[in-house]
Structure formats: structure tokens, C-alpha cells
Write a structure and sequence with these properties.
It is a single chain. With 281 residues, the chain is mostly beta strands. The protein has one domain. Helices cover 10% and strands 27% of the residues. It contains 2 helices and 11 strands, in the order αβββαββββββββ. β8 and β9 form a beta hairpin. It is globular and about 50 Å long. The N terminus and C terminus are likely disordered.
Length: 281
């Protein structure tokens, strides 16, 4: 890629779902199905679906949303799989839903500020063709190599950090869906640490099931990759550019091992209105 790719009604109060989430059926976590990197999408229907997804959350207050402060109740411990999340109840209500601005990254990370964002627009500037990945029409890596890179990024989380001292910036909550943007109830909540650690939650608001997420931002390429942090379905990796996570709508890749990758859509969900009983922080 060289140096610069241009590239229901009442929700539970805390995580703790079952062993796995059946995202489409089958034994593996199947976020969709089939190899659909170049799917043709009816743009009008997609925009309507996106608006419907956002509108569903517009008038839902803190208490009826996942990821409010009670969700991370300090008196409730989820075990090591949720270790990054254990102190998030120190943040105010609605913190997890806040978007991040690209400018905020300039002084956030432990490394020097990036001079400019890289744009990863999957299916447009980043394309799978004949088992290779092309960036701006230039062959970059084989599909297998690109997957391996994503795995290596997701698994490069530093060890031996004092988790209580790790600082986090919320990236927001996104509905995730195939390119048609049909609402399936699936969403991801993400935050990033100064060290570039990605942590968060995969949640299905239809079933109420949830799983922890963990990954990293790659300093050189600005790729952000994460996977389930509970030890299951470790061949599944989701990735996008960190700049994409500042947008209201962006594409992402979901890798189901080396041989299957799908282009997905991430749709930012609106923040809850400020709780008048609690000052903004």
C-alpha cells in the first residue's frame, strides 16, 4: 500500500451473553454469507435502510440503550475477556456513543500525529480481484497476505499494561450490515486507547447477546483491525481505516479466515440526548 493508501424496548444493563452469537446461522459466526466483495446494491433502498436504522435510535434515551454507564457497573465483573471494559463506568452516560473527530487523534496517540488521514474505501479504492488486493489500481498483496496482515494487527495488543490507568477515547456505536444496509440488529461499540488498542462490544439488539472485542490500530497504515476477545471464532477479523471510524458512514471488511472476505457497511448511530441530571464531561 506504499506509505499512503488513499485509501427491543428495554435493553439489558450489562454484557454477559451466551457463548456465541448466531449472526446468520451455522456453526461459525456468519455475518452474512457468501463471497460478496462486488455486490450490486440498490442505492435508493440502501439510503432508506440507513435512515431507518438511525431513526430507530433517535428517540431512545440513556436508560433504554446499551452501553450506558450502568452497563459497565463496577460491581459486576465479566472476567478477563472484558478486562479493558471494567473501568468504563467511570465515564459519563452516553460516553460510548460519542463520535471522535480526526483532529482529536493529533494529540491522542503515543506516537507522532499523522500528517493526513488515509482513506480506505472498500470496493472503490481498495478492491479484491483475482485473489489479490489492489489499492488505487495498484496490486498491493495477495488476499491471503492481506488477511494475515489484518490478523497480525488485531493480535498486536501490548501486554503488561496497567488496565486501570489506560485512557480511552470513544469512537461511537455503529450498526453493521451488508452493503444493502438491511437492519439485522447487529452493532459494534468501539473505543481506542492512547496506545492504539481498540476495545469494545459486539451486540445484537434483537437477541440481547454480546461479546467483547479487542484489536489495534496500525501506526504505519492506519488500519484498525479487531476480533472477538473471548477466544472463539478467532479466524474472523473486522477491519477498516481509523479515519473511517470518524465518519457517519463508511465501509469495512469482514474476514472469515483466509478464503472469504466481505465488504460491509458501518452506520454511526446517533448519540442520546444529554441527560439533564448529569453535567456534560
Amino acid at each position: 500500500m506504499g506509505d499512503r493508501p488513499n485509501v427491543g424496548d428495554r435493553l439489558p444493563n450489562r454484557p454477559g451473553g451466551g457463548d456465541g452469537i448466531n449472526i446468520g446461522g451455522g456453526d461459525k459466526v456468519n455475518i452474512g454469507g457468501g463471497d460478496r466483495n462486488n455486490i450490486n446494491v440498490n442505492i435508493g433502498n440502501r439510503e432508506n435502510n440507513i435512515n431507518n436504522i438511525r431513526n430507530k435510535w433517535t428517540n431512545i434515551d440513556h436508560d433504554r440503550r446499551p452501553f450506558n454507564r450502568d452497563w459497565w457497573d463496577g460491581g459486576y465483573h465479566h472476567g478477563h475477556d472484558w478486562h479493558w471494559h471494567n473501568s468504563w463506568n467511570r465515564y459519563p452516560n452516553g460516553w460510548c456513543w460519542r463520535p471522535a473527530a480526526w483532529a482529536a487523534f493529533g494529540t491522542w496517540f503515543t506516537w507522532a500525529a499523522w500528517p493526513q488521514p488515509y482513506t480506505y474505501d472498500y470496493g472503490t479504492t481498495v478492491v479484491y480481484r483475482d485473489n489479490y488486493v489492489y489499492v488505487n489500481d495498484q496490486q498491493y498483496a495477495s488476499a491471503d497476505q492481506y488477511y494475515t496482515q489484518a490478523v497480525n494487527i488485531a493480535e498486536s495488543v501490548p501486554e503488561n499494561l496497567d488496565e486501570e490507568k489506560v485512557e480511552w477515547m470513544p469512537l461511537g456505536v455503529f450498526a453493521i450490515a451488508e452493503e444493502s444496509a438491511t437492519d439485522t440488529g447487529m452493532m459494534v461499540q468501539l473505543a481506542v486507547s492512547k496506545e492504539g488498542i481498540i476495545a469494545g462490544t459486539f451486540y445484537n439488539d434483537i437477541t440481547g447477546e454480546d461479546r467483547p472485542l479487542q484489536g489495534m490500530v496500525d501506526q504505519k497504515t492506519q488500519r484498525a483491525a479487531w476480533q472477538f476477545a473471548d477466544g472463539k471464532n478467532q479466524d474472523i477479523v473486522m477491519e477498516t481505516g481509523i479515519y473511517n471510524l470518524t465518519k457517519d458512514e463508511a465501509t469495512a471488511l469482514v474476514h472469515f479466515g483466509e478464503k472469504e472476505t466481505q465488504t460491509w457497511l458501518m452506520v454511526r448511530l446517533p448519540e442520546p440526548e444529554q441527560d439533564s441530571s448529569q453535567p456534560a464531561q
